[in-house]
């Protein structure tokens, strides 16, 4: 049930690039969580793009000419190890640079920030109810077994 919010300048990605990015980001996160090919998990994974005008972004008080990105990932608390967070950060950064068709170097990678927020159990609500991690994991495991 991850939520991914991509903050980026207007026109940084085309509509087709956004759709491809959303699919790949979802696949990346679900794969790292062990939920790849789980249709229920896919259907509960949101990706939202929030755009801003390039001229509204400043670095150290100065306007910048290259797009900068902030990707916020919200997951249930305790569902990602430090190693998974490292992999997710690297893979989402690569995904941005691949989408841009930009060189993979430190300067370009530094334009991509990943913020991972772990939502404490009992604080995730949807469809008019609070979801608990144990109930969600049970639903996901049932879906995973029925896909085998």
From TrEMBL:
InterPro entries: Cis-CaaD-like, Tautomerase/MIF_sf
Classification via Pfam families: Tautomerase_3
Tautomerase cis-CaaD-like domain residues: 1-104
Protein name according to UniProt: Tautomerase family protein
Source organism of this protein record: Thiomicrorhabdus marina
């Amino acid at each position: 049930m991850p939520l991914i919010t991509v903050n980026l300048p207007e026109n940084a990605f085309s509509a087709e690039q956004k759709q491809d990015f959303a699919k790949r980001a979802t696949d990346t996160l679900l794969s790292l969580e062990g939920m790849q090919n789980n249709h229920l998990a896919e259907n509960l994974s949101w990706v939202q793009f929030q755009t801003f005008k390039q001229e509204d972004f400043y670095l150290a008080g100065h306007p910048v000419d290259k797009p900068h990105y902030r990707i916020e990932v919200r997951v249930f608390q305790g569902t990602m190890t430090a190693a998974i967070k490292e992999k997710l950060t690297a893979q989402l950064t690569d995904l941005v640079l691949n989408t841009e068709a930009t060189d993979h170097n430190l300067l370009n990678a530094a334009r991509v920030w990943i913020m991972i927020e772990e939502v404490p159990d009992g604080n995730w609500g949807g469809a008019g109810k609070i979801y608990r991690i144990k109930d969600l994991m049970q639903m996901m495991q049932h879906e995973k077994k029925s896909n085998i």
